[in-house]
Amino acid sequence: MKEVAILRLGHRPQRDQRVTTHVGLTARALGATGMYLSSNDTGIVKSILDVGERWGGKFFVENDVGWHSCIRRWKEAGGTVVHLTMFGLNLPDVEEEILSRDKILVVVGAEKVPGEVYHLADFNVAVSNQPHSEISSMAIFLDHLMGKDALVQKFPNAQVRVVPCKEGKLVEEIKPEE
């Protein structure tokens, strides 16, 4: 099982709340273990943890993290740092090498990413060499990294779950003994 966490750089609380929340929720849904937030926004932390409490699984959110020390600690612990940027190497060209790694920190930016990140990262990876959302690039990257099992995973200790159905919506409450 891979250990994958997200480092969200440059979150601007007055501007990026919805996008950063979606970065965390998408990462959680696709099998990441947690998210480090480089700025201080307790509302984001609460939103993501509330979803995790209701929908299950284990996902941490660490607030107000120094991005430089986060990257350094991750690498010192034997982890790999993958920075998602449209200026990086194309995902298909480095995917196999990244897939061989078990501990991956995925760096996604909001505003302009400091140049030092490009040098600290083990991989600067482009999901496309065109501008698009950090949510979409992270989702595509995690899909490649985690495989199709991430799309059907079970989340332990869930209070609710979606029951797949051809039409309509069905969400059921889960009894604690299930």
From TrEMBL:
It is found in: Cytoplasm. It is an enzyme of class 2 (transferase). The keyword tRNA processing applies. S-adenosyl-L-methionine binds at residues 84, 109-113, 127-134. Keywords: Cytoplasm, Methyltransferase, S-adenosyl-L-methionine, Transferase, tRNA processing. Its main location: cytoplasm. Pfam families: Trm56. InterPro entries: Alpha/beta_knot_MTases, tRNA_m1G_MTases_N, tRNA_mtfrase_aTrm56. GO terms for biological process: tRNA nucleoside ribose methylation. GO terms for cellular component: cytoplasm. Its EC number is 2.1.1.206. One of its GO terms (molecular function) is tRNA (cytidine(56)-2'-O)-methyltransferase activity. It catalyses: cytidine(56) in tRNA + S-adenosyl-L-methionine = 2'-O-methylcytidine(56) in tRNA + S-adenosyl-L-homocysteine + H(+). Belongs to the aTrm56 family. PANTHER family: TRNA (CYTIDINE(56)-2'-O)-METHYLTRANSFERASE. Homodimer. Specifically catalyzes the AdoMet-dependent 2'-O-ribose methylation of cytidine at position 56 in tRNAs. This is tRNA (cytidine(56)-2'-O)-methyltransferase. It comes from Methanospirillum lacunae.
